[in-house]
Structures are given as C-alpha cells and as structure tokens.
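ok here's the first one, seq then struct tokens
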Amino acid sequence: MTKLKISIITSVYNNKETIKEAIESVLSQTYRNIEYIIVDGASTDGTVEIVQSYGSKINTFVSEADKGIYDGLNKGLGLATGDVIGFLHSDDLYENDKVIEEIAKAFEGGVDAVYGDLVYTAKEDTTKVLRYWKSRTFDKSLLAKGWMPAHPTFFVRKEVYEIYGKFDSSFKIAADYDFMLRVLSAGINVKYLPKILYKMRVGGESNKSIKNIIQKSKEDLKALKNNNVGGIYTLLYKNLSKIIQFVRR
C-alpha cells in the first residue's frame, strides 16, 4: 500500500525569530512522505535567507508579495500535490516528531479529515503551557453551540478543498473558522485523535490587540451566518468555552 503523501504548508512574513524552529519541527518528523511548502510574503528581515539555507529540504518555496496569511495559504493549497494537507504557522511547532506519522495512520480508515488537541505556550518558552484546547469527537449539533476543532490540528484530504473551495480571503482573521464551518456542516467524515498534536505560541493575529479581538468576533459572526450554523448566542458560547481551556491545563 502506497503511503499517503502529506503536504504541510507554512505561510510566513518577516518572522526570522521562529521560522527555523517551525521548519525543524517539520523536517524532524519520522513520517517520510511529506511535501513541505513555504509561502513567503516577500519578507525583508532575513526570513527568506533562513528558508533558502535549507535548500532542497523544502520541496517548494515561493517568496512574493501577497494579501495576507490566507492569500498565502491559498497559494500553498494551489501548489500542494499531497493526498492530505495540513498547516504549520511560522510561530508554531508540532508536539513531537511522530505527529504526522499518527495523522497518516488515522487516515487509513478513509476519513476526510483528522484533528486533535492543541496547547498555547509562552512565546519565549514553548515548554510552558498557558492554555489547553482539548477537543472531542465530532457531532454536527456542536457547531451551533460554538464548538470547533483547533484549525492548526485540522488535516484535510485535498479533494475536500476541490469540492468546497479554499479560504475566503474577504476574512482577515477568521477564514479558517469559516472554512471549517463550511466543510463540517456539509457532513464530511472526520476523526478525532485525543492527544496533543500542536504547540502554538501566544500572541497570534486574532488576539494580539483589542481591535483584533473585536474584528475576530465580527468575522466569526459573519462566518456563522454565511454557513447557516448560528448567530450571536453561538458566538457567545464559543467565546465562553475558551475560559475552560485555561483551567484544563
């Protein structure tokens, strides 16, 4: 049986501080049939030189001006040739070197998508866990209650993007939420891996300022309405559920 090819996409712009760690997290994976794609938004801080130093270990590298992270991720989706596609943001890491191996095994049952748990860590110390996003087995009714898997843990078959489309770049912060609502409400077959797969540094785009938090809430509400999943109460439940993630750590 031919091993699944898994494409991993990183979209980056001016992040020389952590891009090396993200790259090493992918290259250290025990699963060998990985296609690694990095889409850079024309960085000027030395990020490009760091990526180029890895040579052919990065399967595809593009550096050109873009319209933001989702534009970059969509470019990556257009370049991906894998059976399954996942994302690793340039600030982040996989929990260990066997994550992709476990993801590949989970797809053996013929599911459309696989997801797991995520932890938020201190920016300067990724061993210090600040918040634990523990997920659960999927039930479509949970969407209207504000539940959603952590998008960075969400690995999806390429044909799902071909059927349901890529990220809607009219969203600046919540296109990932919109995408997951779109495909999960459509009834794709998903599997939950009850383990930590991903380590995310705090200080991401959606929560780095009050302005961005407000923008994120507006976009979340737009995504809910666009996908006929819920409204203001769903958004309220979604935000309240984050409090539990702090006590679970």
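and now the second one, same deal
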Amino acid sequence: MTLALYPSVLVSLAFLLANGLLLWAILRANRRAAPSPPAAPSASQASAPPAKTLSAADILAWEFEYARITASEANAERHTMVNFDLLIAGVAASGVVAVLGRDAGLPTAVGTALLWLLCGVGWVYFLAIIRLREAWHDSLRTMNRIKEFYIQHAQELDSEVLRSAFRWQPHTLPPPGKPWTVYFYAATLIALLNSAAYVGGGALLDLQAVRAAPLAVLGPLALSGLAFFAFHVWLYFAFLRPKGGAHAKKSS
C-alpha cells in the first residue's frame, strides 16, 4: 500500500512542514544581530558634576539586586509555564475523550483540531521557556559584571583573594544552551507533549485507516513524531547559541 492511499498521513506531514517553516522563520528573525548599544557620553558631553557626591555603592547594589530578582523570577516563571502547559494538555485530552465518546456524534477530526491546537500552544510555551533561559542568563551576566567591578576596585582585599571567593565568574558562567539543566528538561517535556499531540492528531484524522492498516499509518506518523521531537531539541540549542558569531562569544 502506498502512502498516497492515506491522506491523513499526508495532511499530518503538511502540518509538520508548516510548523517547521514557521519556527525556522522565527529562528532566523531571532538570530539577527541586535543593534549596537548607544555609545557612552564623552567627557566633553558630560554634565557638570553635582554639588553632592553620589555613592557608587548604592547604584551598584540596586543593580545587583534587580538582576538577582529577575533571575529568580525567570526560574519561577519557568515552573508556571510548565504547569500551564500540562493543564492545557489535560484539557485537550479530556476534549478528545469526549469527542471519541459514543454519544458525542462529532467527527474525529475535531479531536485532531484540539490536539494540533495544543501543539500551537505548546510552541508558545516552548519559546517562552527559551526566552526565560536567556533572561536568566542575562541576569547572571549582569551580576557577574558587578562582581568583577568590585573585584577590580575593592580596597579591603587583594583582587585575586576576593576573586577566589566567587565560583561563578564571567569565564566560568554556564552557557545559556547548556544541556541537562532544569530549563532543558522543561523544554523537553513540552516537546514530548507536542510530539504526542501531533501523532495523536494525525491518527484521529482517519481512524478507519488506522484500524485497517495500523503499521502503514502509525509507522510514518511515529517516525515524523520522532522528527518533530528532535526538531524541538535542535531549536532549543539553536535559539540559545550566542548571537553574532565569534564576536558575541568574546563579548560575553
């Protein structure tokens, strides 16, 4: 039996291709180099010194506290995102069970729509997890920059002695795309739910074909589901690669 005998498989592959093209476009837009920050004002442009002397320690402490809070909030939001995605997955699964009920009288394609809608919502949460990882890493870079400033200008301790107190420094900070982190596992969980919803939705397009030739229908769907999952994992690392090539790596 040829693949053309099962339009449900072709429709599922078309849905997979549409997902890939859309996410590829988002990745390309995200990888564009960010505009360079505005240059600091020169000495001639600086305003006259204030009458009172300001304490640099105050603004540094406030900036460090802001970075610490944003890093903590990124971790909390990651947990919330995963919980919401699991909740929506449960609602979608309940809807599919209701559609398949004997008294529902609805076509199984309604279940496909619910599951593939879950894929769309899952993509949003997946990208949000990636953005939270970027925000968390940026907050840590900010804190390390302030620590490095104190190391270079502190007078109470020798700079090397003070540096030895910090395990995380600019050169030891874990990269944003480090695998096997909690963020990675959260993104992988969403990827698994998306892949299962994609395969389930494809199968619901034509249950009669699934019953008649399960291997001919579920086999290609399972393989494309694995490719869908692998695409999620690849995107996670692709989004979190340093932007701007070697220059971005040096500046980080």
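notes on #2: The chain has one domain: 55-245. Residues 110 and 239 are 33 Å apart (CA to CA).
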